[in-house]
Amino acid sequence: MNPTRTGAQVLVDQLKIHSVDHVFCVPGESYLSVLDALHDASDIKVITCRHEGGAAMMADAFGKLQNRPGICMVTRGPGATNASAGLHVAMQDATPLIMFIGQIARPMAEREAFQELDYRRAFGQLAKWVAQIDDASRIPEMVSRAFHTATSGRPGPVVLALPEDMLEDVVSAQDAMPYRVVSTAPGADAMAALKVALERAERPLMILGGGAWDVDAVANIQNFAQRACLPVAAAFRRQDRFDNRLPNYVGHVGIGIDGNLAARVRASDLLLVVGARLGEMTTSGYTLIDIPVPRQVLIHIHPHPEELGRVYQPTLAVTASPGPFAAALARLPVQARSATPMVCARRERSVQTWDLDTAYKHARQVGLLLLSAMSEALDGDLDRVESIIKVFGLVNATADYVDHFKIVNGCSDLFLEVFGDKGTHARTAAGANSLPNGIPVEIEAIVAVR
Questions:
Q1: Tens digits of per-residue pLDDT, 35-83?
Q2: What is the fold, at CATH topology level, of the domain defined by 188-339?
Q3: Taking Cα atoms as reference points, which of 212, 179, 213 lies closest to residue 19?
């Protein structure tokens, strides 16, 4: 026999069943009964935020880090719309998130009551599923569906509106079972076709992205890429899908893509895309790959079938979640490097080389830019410079390079020429694995003026 509880108590009990331990919210009068129930739930930590947008972003970050739904609670009307940016980010980034919105009482509906809003219409394009729970006895059913929807296929946000009077209803409701993530695995025929395509390719490139990755999936992909000597790039904002320190990693296919990496994408004869949507940012405004039929052999792996063929027609489309696919890939036998045309990246992703003299001139040019900035700040009067206190220079170099100081001398020597003894300064010269847009050197200066 099911005990009677208020709708709010039923809701909080379902959160416990689904292992929720954090809730991010801005309190509001339309779901006070839920806050009361959460007060009695010592195993759920409630994080009170100053703004609904912050609460939604925190829930999104939680979902990304924990690979399970982040929970956000906001009040009706402007509270909900303030949180919409977080929904949009979660939708685009495939982050599991559930937003509960306090709603007007049911008898007030369709009267333009205070802060009334139809959330199905308002958030229809911002979430995977938007619904309103009008019957408290259905809370277990609909919350369970919310967790399954947020985590299945391409993960994303779900919105549930909670009429405040419904939360006060006393009902006898059967609790749900804990949700389980539904994942899909690639078939044997698809993996066999993938193996053949990789063995035939001379310029393959793997691009990793999307949501629903875990530590094992990343490890399995890295294991295969190293065995196959396969170059790997990260899709937009997905640099954590592959260890950037490994020699196979060739860069970030995102905003402001390195020119050499863009050329590499275009010149590849096989693109193995795992989890990524191939959206605007990853394709440089849909310019890196031909539409609708790519020049390259395109093998697209994605957990949601609607993403396969959305813009680009793949040679091989595979509906599979990152975890099961990575596990299958790790088991895939690959030919020895000497017997396959696949070429290991060895960090040739954006290798533009400069000799010492050229790099020195680049540093001198940066020094001229710093002088220009000083002149502008001092109304053209560089005589007001009393001393150069410190120069800090970063050189875009490989890990085994040791002559960073000789390059930064280009800037230091210029300051001595211009300011004489006043140009003498302390200095740091260090190396960096990469610098913005592949620039050879970045320098900053601290200057004392009168």
A1: 999 999 999 999 999 999 999 999 999 999 999 999 999 999 999 999 9
A2: Rossmann fold (3.40.50)
A3: 179
Q: Read off the pTM.
A: 0.73
Is the distance from CB of 317 to CB of 309 less than 8 angstroms? yes
H or E segment at 253?
strand 249-253
The answer to whether the beta carbons of residues 201 and 141 sit under 8 Å apart is no
> How many angstroms separate the CA atoms of 94 and 149, rounded?
12
Architecture of domain 4-170: 3-Layer(aba) Sandwich (3.40)
Helices (H), 131-258: 139-151, 188-200, 215-228
CB count in 10 Å sphere of residue 310: 15
The CATH-assigned architecture of domain 356-449 is 2-Layer Sandwich (3.30)
Question: Which tens digit of pLDDT belongs to each residue from 189-207?
Answer: 999 999 999 999 999 999 9
| Domain residue spans of the chain | 4-170, 188-339, 356-449
CA distance 205 to 147: 35
